[in-house]
Design brief:
The protein is mainly alpha-helical and about 400 residues long. It has a single domain, classed as MFS general substrate transporter like domains (Growth Hormone, Chain: A, Up-down Bundle), CATH 1.20.1250.20. Helix content is about 80%, strand content about 0%. The protein is globular and about 60 Å long.
């Protein structure tokens, strides 16, 4: 084995380790998804409050992205990643100590701060730690770690809550143990950012999209908004629909249904590498549209198999569009603004995961869960189909 081969193997191990840290951090953000029904029984609150608790997390993500989206460009990737892992552990502690809504809100807010820091910094770290050459594998590792982590959270919590003791405690204890491992791994990773001297002041930058990235950012951002709306529906509202409409109370099944969305997203991201950005971005939007149509049909027919089919199709389309979008935006952004640009991309995505879901929760008061879901599905269908048609007529420049 040559020195070059050994160095390439080490580089591959480093970016995969960073992707693992990313996945562990993101898993904590969806860990409570199958547990909301238990919290509702224990504390007593409505479906609207479930979406509000969920939205607090998304608001935390957006606040962190807007306030600290470029901090990893200035301080380095590793300090920001370590801070995000500490915040995730504090979130788990809030859930362990939970005795009412205030600590649920605090836990979700801290989880949102953690995810906001992770989204830009971890994505950039994975891309930068990859060995030289085509960045397709690194881009897939970053986006798959994001979606895979989000999917593993509900699956882990659902299985533990259904088949192990302490359903509202054990999932968070297991996650804290995983965070400790991730913290140690992060400390061992090399820093990829060369610090500037003197260091620019740390100031909230807001939405930072360099001029050269804007043409790629707008359609990719709209596609991400639509795709993350689907994710928000399944992580916040689908557990309630399964329990109330389909009479499915098995928490492991709930976790598996939510996991199927993110698993399909990862599969879509894998296919994007073969299709390329120009074809994958519009195709992803149109497949997402078909998935949302199936979700609407499942609401009308009260069918679990159709709901799962919609979850898989929608997740697959979201994965295609998400990886194509982040690849296009990352390629268009200058090196010194890549972390901030990726953070801005995630701001748009997390606006999609929060605002529509709260709307669904509010509509349930007047229309019920099924009616609110149908209105939501119709809106996402119109948005994703419109973006898909636009991109067919004006495809991205990135190949």
């Amino acid at each position: 084995m040559t020195v070059h081969d050994t160095g390439e193997r080490h580089a591959r191990g480093r970016y995969l380790a960073a992707a693992g840290v990313f996945a562990v951090g993101m898993a904590g953000t969806t860990l409570p998804t199958p547990l909301y029904g238990l919290y509702r029984e224990r504390i007593g609150f409505s479906e609207l409050m479930v979406t509000v608790v969920f939205a607090v997390y998304a608001l935390g993500v957006i606040a962190a992205l807007l306030a600290a989206g470029d901090f990893s460009d200035l301080l380095g990737r590793r300090p920001v990643l370590l801070t995000a892992l500490v915040l995730s552990a504090l979130s788990a502690v809030c859930f362990l100590a939970e005795n009412g809504l205030p600590l649920l809100f605090a836990g979700r807010l801290l989880s949102g701060f953690s995810a906001g820091l992770l989204s830009g910094a971890a994505t950039a770290a994975v891309l930068e730690l990859a060995p030289p050459g085509p960045g397709a594998r690194a881009a897939f590792a970053a986006t798959a770690a994001n979606m895979g982590g989000l999917g593993c959270g509900p699956l882990l919590a659902g299985v533990l809550a259904e088949h192990a003791p302490w359903p509202l405690r054990l999932p968070f204890l297991v996650h804290i143990a995983l965070l400790l491992v991730a913290f140690a791994v992060t400390r061992a990773l090399p820093e990829t950012v060369r610090r500037r001297t003197p260091r620019p002041p740390l100031r909230p930058q807001g939405m930072v999209v360099p001029p050269q990235a804007r043409a790629a950012f707008v359609p990719a951002g709209l596609a991400a908004f639509a795709g993350f709306s689907l994710m928000g529906l399944f992580t916040a509202v689908a557990p309630g629909f399964l329990a109330e409409t389909l009479d499915e109370h098995n928490l492991a099944v709930t976790g598996a249904v939510v996991f199927s969305v993110f698993c399909a997203s990862t599969a879509g991201q894998l296919l994007m590498g073969r299709l390329g950005v120009r074809r994958a971005l519009p195709a992803g939007c149109l497949v997402l549209t078909a998935g949302m149509v199936l979700v609407a049909c499942s609401l009308l027919a009260e069918s679990l198999p159709v709901l799962v089919a919609g979850a898989v199709a929608g997740g697959f389309g979201q994965g295609l569009a998400f990886r194509a979008g982040i690849t296009d935006v990352s390629a268009a952004a200058p090196d010194e603004r890549r972390g901030a640009t990726i953070s801005a991309f995630f701001v748009v995505a997390y606006a999609g995961i929060s605002l529509p879901v709260v709307g669904v929760g509010a509509l349930t008061l007047a229309l019920g869960l099924r009616g609110a879901g149908l209105v939501f599905a119709g809106c996402v269908v119109l948005l994703s189909a419109g973006v898909g048609v636009f991109l067919l007529r004006r495809p991205p420049r990135t190949d």
